[in-house]
Specification:
By secondary structure, this protein is of the alpha+beta class. It has four helices and eleven strands. Strands 1-2-3-7-6 form a five-stranded mixed β-sheet. It has a four-stranded mixed β-sheet with strand order 8-9-10-11, covered by helices on one side. Strands 4-5 form a two-stranded antiparallel sheet. The longest helix has 17 residues, at about 120-135.
Amino acid sequence: MDEETVRDQADLIPLMLQHLHAPLVGESYVRGVLPAPGGVDAVRVAVGPVDAVDTGELTLYEFPLLVGGDPVTAYDVIGMLRTLCGAGGRSPDGSRTAVRGMPLVPVDPAVVPRADESAADRGLRLVRTLARATCFDETHATDPLLHGFLFLDQDRVRLYFRADGLPGVTAADVRTTGALTALIAALPSLLLGEVERMAADDGDPQCARVLDLTYW
């Protein structure tokens, strides 16, 4: 197995962890993420009930990590798992072999559609991306520095930042249904350059000011 394949598999794990306790769909939870044997560019995800006491209660889905040179992301895997589990976990060709008592289902991304992301998925992606920058900065010198969040409803989240040049805590209200990639890139300049648009929120003692970015 080459080093790139190992890294690709490792990168999937943090994004799958949320589904140890939050179902993919119905009663289907992620119970494991395994490397495919023999150095194959693939990853295997074990799925089953959260209270499973034996691997025989799980199903093992195998996903290629590359399709036509394009990477298969964790978001792709989660979307396909939701489709498969929602349809009863059947593979397109009905084939089965067993691995440690688990039926093995090879998944063809060209055949299995990806279920749409939920508002919760997008919100989690936003917060995780911002928090990841902080986690990889051991000095916590990231500016602005995310140090809190609150989901206001299904598609709005308030993000709390410390920003150089702004005393106290600055909050930003954003929609998870917007252009998240562009918003994440623009956040530092928006927080430091839109001070005149910020207003106090008397109902929120956690921050000194709030920037409304829900129009993004």
